[in-house]
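Re: the multi-chain job from yesterday

Posting the exact lines I submitted so nobody has to dig through the queue logs.
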Amino acid sequence: MPCGEFSLIQTYFTSRTGQRDDVILGIGDDAAVLQLTGDEQLVVTTDAMVAGVHFPENTSPFDIGYKLMAVNLSDLAAMGAQPRWASLALTLPDADEGWLKAFSAGLFELASQHDVQLIGGDTTRGPLTLSLTLHGVVKKGRYLKRDGARAGDAIYVSGTLGDAALALQHLLENDEAEDALLARLNRPTPRVELGQSLQGIASAAIDLSDGLMADLGHILTASGVGASIQLHDLPLSKQVKARTIDGDWSLPLAGGDDYEVCFTVPSTCQEALEESAAKAGLNVTRVGIIEAEPGLRCVTSAGEILTPHGRGYEHFSSVQVEEVDS
Amino acid sequence: MPCGEFSLIQTYFTSRTGQRDDVILGIGDDAAVLQLTGDEQLVVTTDAMVAGVHFPENTSPFDIGYKLMAVNLSDLAAMGAQPRWASLALTLPDADEGWLKAFSAGLFELASQHDVQLIGGDTTRGPLTLSLTLHGVVKKGRYLKRDGARAGDAIYVSGTLGDAALALQHLLENDEAEDALLARLNRPTPRVELGQSLQGIASAAIDLSDGLMADLGHILTASGVGASIQLHDLPLSKQVKARTIDGDWSLPLAGGDDYEVCFTVPSTCQEALEESAAKAGLNVTRVGIIEAEPGLRCVTSAGEILTPHGRGYEHFSSVQVEEVDS
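And the result, structure tokens for all chains:
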């Protein structure tokens, strides 16, 4: 490869990543070599992003890098795992220095917050496509999965729902959106600490990427249960709340891109959860309850059950073929 | 996602992969959970392939799947690692059932030979881009790296060199190529067993993806040494040998896509190597020697040092930006 391009990669990736003690061999050999201890299990997730599919073509490279790391960290958060090592497959139309500089800055800003080291990858020329494989660890058997929800468990979500989808609506309609709202779309905060604190407390967990209905639906299906959600208990920003006044709950229920954690907690653990959340200043809200009857019922403040329908409940990024989750 | 597409992925990926005992949680949650033992280290490599860059646009999907697995297995081979788990990021223009069926058949044909389980990934719509992250293990400290070559060590390569590059030449010139030659391009055989047998024997190892000169060059640079190669000792098929008669050694030296292993062996270990290779029926050839003087000298049968130059020594896939190896 031309030397100039090689040194761009060196400048913006190899030399900028943190150095963890458990990386025996990092970038620069045929593969990386990593050390786990005997009582740890390895947790692996891969998320890809394609320009024009997962983000508008004019998204800033800083935000693309930040979000690529965020969506993968969010998957580890929903497993209760501690993040450690990342491997990046980057396909670029050309080795644009400004783009690489900003992209890597966004990627490493979030990576360094979570002590994640870049341990390898592959950079090739082609249409802009990004894929990150992120590795974390959990103590043996302490991971959070989807199939443990039982009737009577309370349903919680972190943060607020629907902000990212509202920001995207503004962008697609060429409206001005407030910076705080845009940040919810472009720089989501993965709930990594929350996920780890849920070990031994949550009976099931999932990260919210496709909207509460779809993702809670995965927990319900995997666990063989149903649920009721109290719509007026959903944690909403004032902007999203304003959109629900006419009874349209599509943003918080099906907007997607929240990157919050949805989890279920048996009644015996709810005190422990609320104590631990209060102590850590973590924002979690109880929004419903797991029931034996299959299906998801969204209950209005008048006690009516809302039946979602129409395109409002489709994922805005419906061009995505399929996530083989993990 | 449309249900039909979901079930295609289910049919051709999730349900077709092998099931390893050390996969605690496979496809279907936010991430996979994997078990290592306390005396193992994790080895991770990522290689991406882009249509029109890494393979001609008309390459069969079976061969694309096979080769994607092969090039990653080849990296693990060069580390001496035992392959275990794969994560696939697949970007596709559309969910073409015939394509997915053939691609997955190629991928799993080679994966099952090496007991590799698909543990997750992400499939999205976009220009055809494929990225595989492959995980293996080595006993603690037993991996093969690049920086251990010392003056006096013998240099070996597996298999024969230049066949894949010759096959590509035929394809690009619309010539007929023999099936055996085409197979060397489209279905390379990763030297996984050889790599593992080199633990404790090889002082350095690398897989040959960019041609012997470039890849041996990485060992020399990392180890701070030089080398001499005897051109007439290079293991060549009769077709490649015929191309060297006029003194053009570009195919075996710089052709690329060999996916053989190049490794160095201290004189104290050469007997062990040749015994173990003979016993296992492994085809390895001594081609040169590591020297203290920096640089790579290619020596002809007349004792002259050939100085490679001109475009014959460039990688045919020179549009590739950079491999951040691993």
